[in-house]
Amino acid sequence: MGKWKRTIAGIVSAALIVSAFAGCSGQADISSGPTEKDFPVAIGTVTLKNEPAGVAVFSPNLADVILAMGYEISLKAKSSDCGQSDLSVLPNVDPKDATAVKATGATLALFDKNPGDDITAALQKEGVLSLILPSATSRADLERLYSEVGSAIKGGSTGYQKGVKTANNIFLTLDDIARVIPESNSPVTVCYLYDAKGKAVTGDMLASKLIESAGLVNAFAGSSGGQATTEAMTISNPQYIFCAEGVKKELEQSADYKKLEAVQKNRVLEMKPEYMEYQGRGMIQAVSFMAGTVYPQLLEGTLPSSKPSSSSSSKPSSSSSSGSSSSSSSSSSSASSSSKAPASSSSSAAAGAVPSGTYKRGDKSDAVKVLQTRLDQLGYMFTAINGEYTQGTEQAVKDFQYLNKMEVTGIADPNTIAKLNSSDVKIREKQ
Question: I need a labelling partner for 323 at 20 to 30 A (CA). Which of 2, 118, 215, 293 fits?
Answer without folding.
Answer: 215
